[in-house]
Amino acid sequence: MKNRKHEPILFSYRDCDDFAAYLEEQARLGWHFKEIHMGLVFERGKPAEIRYRVEVFPKRREEDDGATWETKEYAAYCEAAGWKFVGSVRKFCIFEQMEGEAVPIVTDEERLANVVRAERGILATRWWQMLVVVFLLADDFPPLFPVTLILVLCILVQTISLVGWSRRWRRRLREGKGLRLASRGGTAWRVVKNTIFECLVYIWLCISIVGLISTAQIGWIGAGIWVMVLMVFGIFLIFSNWFRGSDTFSGVLMVICLLAIMAAWGLSMGEGLAELTGTANRPI
């Protein structure tokens, strides 16, 4: 019987309360959260009632894994309020309630503002990436355009959703209702909505590669390059969603994708031109 297990981090910043509830449920089953290392790490122990709190700390970056010095200062502040810092990844900070009474770390208004700011940062990065793709690569790589348009629509829907979500909760807070950061559709819907963008990017890459292969004269080396691009991108896709949480590294993935497409396209076209040149120079 194993005493340790790893679980994926399939939570967005709007799912902080779902995240905390998941950790509490695992504790009641005898699995106690220990750290974040290639996912959530749990160790087997006695079932216990442990209260967790997950907050978005705006001074962290998407690339952060461990506790930065700003995070350590924040952790000391939260410990004075009765919350022990137990882990962090991206802008998530996880706290466990200490013995005795604990007070809220931030107000609901501040909590909502932190989440909206973090989500806006992700969407701003995605808009910038897609605009670069549309204006720089659409003419040279026609097969990219239809799926790129789908990705743009996906980001637009996410932007509208964030605006509506934030306005709805601001109105509810003005009415004196509490903030609840959780998904309405349960676990399945949370997983879908938090991974759909990366999955669409992967489909975008696959269609792009198929289209470019069909329009370029390439040999086995060129085809092998495209397969390697798909494999590498797939590995990064799994890493981003399983080990660090959804929305992570989407910018890095997009840049790697574009560089890989341009490099593979250049090598493939070079090989095709070499074959054509050899054919042209071959004696009749």
From TrEMBL:
UniProt entry tagged with the keyword Transmembrane helix: yes
Residues passing through the membrane, by range: 144-165, 195-214, 220-239, 251-268
Alphabetized UniProt keyword annotations: Membrane, Transmembrane, Transmembrane helix
Transmembrane keyword on record: yes
Protein origin, superkingdom: Bacteria
InterPro entries given in the database record: DUF2812
Protein name: DUF2812 domain-containing protein
Pfam families linked: DUF2812 (PF11193)
